[in-house]
């Protein structure tokens, strides 16, 4: 990919992820303070003067209530950054902070930034997932006319994907149990320690269930089955449960990006470079399948094959999303989310893209891998894909 300068990743950090509901570990923590924790951690870990940061580009999905009013700006100020450091909040749904990373890298490559932070936050205990729509029609009559059958919630899309790719309930639950096993093992072996900064006394991701088994998951009821959807989609077997879906979470993550020249000037040691990136639109009914063409597009741009990728981070919004992707792309599942995924670790919407980058970077370093690919499904049939190269 031609560039003015290489965009390098200097550091990446995340919080442990908490349950995104009343009683969760961060339910009494303001989203701005949650977000500011990872920004301050980047400064402390790298020793940079925050005054050199050209921008803070942050993702948040629920931009209402305590996450309204451009939360990136307030998080930078809460972190003690000088008032001269700007901030902007972006929304590409679940891929918001991955898009923030793309914007940060693009700014560096274009020569517009020397040092920039890409970050993301979501406090689903403070801003529940349904807050933004609040019963309003956000599609409008022209979209409704284009899709006369009507669009569906993500859970129904997950059901449609499971049906189309012939993924049994047992296979979904098996995948989900493995996500918990891998995540619990990663914590036990200290593989997350270097990437995590605490906010409260929460020491690990709150939604990991080390004892989860296929037998336990098989006893859960379908989460999205009701009379309306059964009538509309009589062909569905109703396989999606709370156990093979990602939970709702609170959490934040941040990535420090710089030009090679700025990193050298400031005495910063790059850990990786942003090699290639892509974003696609796909069928908004299936909605979550965009990761398939996004992966193909970013690999083509990178001049790489699936075999060249050492670690994949594929967001586990729902188990069938990853398994359908794997069936089409042909990736070795041993390399996919090797430390567990969102089904176990959690999915704090606007913070998940930067969380995946943080986990991917560390996994590459821990395994000695060279190339990592992360890809994120997003509401509306969108997907972001990113390839990073360890240096």
From TrEMBL:
Residues of the Thiolase C-terminal domain: 270-390
Active site: 94, 347, 377
Bilayer-crossing regions: none
Residue intervals of the Thiolase N-terminal domain: 8-261
Alphabetically ordered keywords of this record: Acyltransferase, Transferase
Pfam families in UniProt: Thiolase_C, Thiolase_N
Family, similarity comment: Belongs to the thiolase-like superfamily. Thiolase family.
Protein's name in the database: Acetyl-CoA acyltransferase
Species of origin: Lentzea fradiae
């Amino acid at each position: 990919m031609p560039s003015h300068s290489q965009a390098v990743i200097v550091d990446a950090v995340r919080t442990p992820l908490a349950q995104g509901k009343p009683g969760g570990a961060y339910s009494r923590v303001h989203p701005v303070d949650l977000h500011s924790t990872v920004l301050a951690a980047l400064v402390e870990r790298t020793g940079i003067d925050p005054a050199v940061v050209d921008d803070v580009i942050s993702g948040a999905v629920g931009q209402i209530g305590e996450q309204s009013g451009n939360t990136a700006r307030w998080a930078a100020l809460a972190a003690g950054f000088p008032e001269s450091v700007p901030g902007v909040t972006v929304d590409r749904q679940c891929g918001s902070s991955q898009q923030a990373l793309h914007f940060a890298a693009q700014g560096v490559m274009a020569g517009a930034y020397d040092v920039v932070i890409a970050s993301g936050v979501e406090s689903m205990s403070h801003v529940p997932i349904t807050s933004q729509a609040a019963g309003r029609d956000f599609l409008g009559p022209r979209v409704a006319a284009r899709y006369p059958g009507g669009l569906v919630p993500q859970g129904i899309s997950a059901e449609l994907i499971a049906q189309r790719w012939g993924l049994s309930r047992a296979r979904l639950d098996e995948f989900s149990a493995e996500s918990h096993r891998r995540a619990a093992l990663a914590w036990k072996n200290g593989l997350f320690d270097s990437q995590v900064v605490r906010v409260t006394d929460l020491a690990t991701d709150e939604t990991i269930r080390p004892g989860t088994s296929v037998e336990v998951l098989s006893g859960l009821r379908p989460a999205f089955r009701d009379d309306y959807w059964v009538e509309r989609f009589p062909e569905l077997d109703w396989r999606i449960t709370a156990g093979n879906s990602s939970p709702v979470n609170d959490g934040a993550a941040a990535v420090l990006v710089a030009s090679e020249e700025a990193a050298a000037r400031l005495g910063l040691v790059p850990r990786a470079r942003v090699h290639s990136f892509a974003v696609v639109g796909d069928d908004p009914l299936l909605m979550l399948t965009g990761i398939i063409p996004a992966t193909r597009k970013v690999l083509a741009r990178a001049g790489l094959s699936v075999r060249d990728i050492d670690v994949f981070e594929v967001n586990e919004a729902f188990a069938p999303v990853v398994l359908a992707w794997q069936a089409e792309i042909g990736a070795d599942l041993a390399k996919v989310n090797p430390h567990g995924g969102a089904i176990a670790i959690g999915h704090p919407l606007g913070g998940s893209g930067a969380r995946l980058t943080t986990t991917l970077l560390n996994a590459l370093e821990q395994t000695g891998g060279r190339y990592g690919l992360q890809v994120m499904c997003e509401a509306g049939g969108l997907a972001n894909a990113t390839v990073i190269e360890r240096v």
